[in-house]
Each structure stands twice: as C-alpha cells, then as structure tokens.
Amino acid sequence: VVVYDREGFARETFGEHDRGALCVAVEGECVARRVASGSADATVKLWTVDRSASLATLAGHEDAVAGVAWVGHGLVASGSRDGAVKLWDPRLAEPCVATRTFESGVCAVACLGARGVAAGLQDGSVVRLDSRLGGHVRLTAFGDGAGVFALAARAVGDTVRVAAGADEGAARVVTVDGAGAVDLPARADYV
C-alpha cells in the first residue's frame, strides 16, 4: 500500500501483508492519520500515515478481505469473501465487536454515518446494516448474478446515497431510506 501526497509523490509505503492488499480506506476526509487495508491473507491492518507503522493486525476472517471502511469513533468495518462483515475496535484486547454473516461473499463495504454500514455482496445485493451489524435491509440488487465490487456513500443534507458498481458493467445510485434509485449508463466491463 502506497500513500501519495497532493503533488503525486509517494509519501509512505506499507508492506506487511503476507499476500496482496485488495482494498484500503483512509480515516477522515481532510487530514489522514490512519489507513486500513484488507488483504488476500484474510487480515485487516491498521497503519499510521505519519510513521508508516503498523498499529494492529485484525485477524478473524476465513477468506480474503475485499472491503474496509472507517465507520467513526475509531471503529473499522471489514467485508470478506467468507460472507462476513465484521466491526472492529482496535483499542480492545478482543477487537472484533460484531459479526454479521451472509450466504454470499462480501466484496465491498462503505460507511453510512449514523445509519450504519453498506455491504456489496457477490450475489449482486447491496444491504444496509445498522451501526452494530444487527438488522439489515436490502437496498437494491443487480440481476444476472453480477457481484457488487465497489461502493461509495455520501450524505447530502439528510439524505444518504450509495453508489454501487457491479462486475457486469452496471452501476446504480440508491438512497438509504429506499426513496429512489438511478441506474447509470452501462459499461462494457467492471465498474
């Protein structure tokens, strides 16, 4: 994992995963202090940007970690191809504080602020989980088994929108409250 500055120069390089990093998330929008990375080695690693030091290794998934997101208050959500979404508090001796398991692999996660976590599943579903991963609601689903491999969320006023990209070139923007969905122009391959 390489962190670049605004001018495009490599600032820090992190390289302690046993296998390749598949996803990264930066804590905060303006000044990044910590980075989370998920790997094919089934772990999440937390790093400080200033010292490029590994803060913690979070182990507990049984397959590759394909999505990570900072969810506030120092907590990290991770999604794995093993079908589990985990919520981690790295300050605790037992850092995994919640797990929600799906039949389908998890390919992406995104923070929804106070509204919880979104997860993109290999079966083409996008689900919203509450802030402790308890209940879940299906927000949308892509047809033909197109896995959801990319998620991004943004609050605009009181509305939270989730953009989802699937491996069949499909992309959709949905509101978390279920008020609407917009399909974006299709692409020939992955989004």
Characterize this entry briefly.
The protein is mainly beta.
N-to-C series of helices and strands: EEEEEEEEEEEEEEEEEE
Roughly how much helix do the residues carry, as a percent range? Answer: under 10%
Taking all Cα atoms into account, the compactness measure Rg is 16 Å
**What is the strand arrangement across the widest sheet?**
3-4-5-6
Q: Could you tell me how far the N terminus lies from the C terminus, measured between alpha carbons in angstroms?
A: 21 Å
User: Helix- and strand-based class?
Assistant: mainly beta
- What is the number of helices? 0
Rough outline: globular
Output mean pLDDT.
Answer: 84
Give the percentage of residues in beta strands. Answer: over 45%
Largest sheet: 4 strands, antiparallel
Count the strands?
Answer: 18
Low-confidence stretches: none
Features:
single chain; 191 residues; mainly beta; four-stranded antiparallel beta sheet; 54% strand
Task: Write the SSE topology.
Blueprint: E1 2-4, E2 10-13, E3 21-26, E4 34-39, E5 43-48, E6 54-59, E7 65-72, E8 75-80, E9 84-88, E10 96-101, E11 106-111, E12 117-121, E13 125-129, E14 136-141, E15 148-156, E16 159-166, E17 171-175, E18 181-184
Antiparallel strand pairs: 1-2, 3-4, 4-5, 5-6, 7-8, 8-9, 9-10, 11-12, 12-13, 13-14, 15-16, 16-17, 17-18
Q: Describe it for me?
A:
By secondary structure, the protein is an all-beta fold. It is 0% helix and 54% strand. The chain is built from no helices and 18 strands. The strands form five sheets. A four-stranded antiparallel sheet has the order 3-4-5-6, with no helix packed on it. A four-stranded antiparallel sheet has the order 7-8-9-10, with no helix packed on it. The protein is globular. The model has no long low-confidence stretch (mean pLDDT 84).
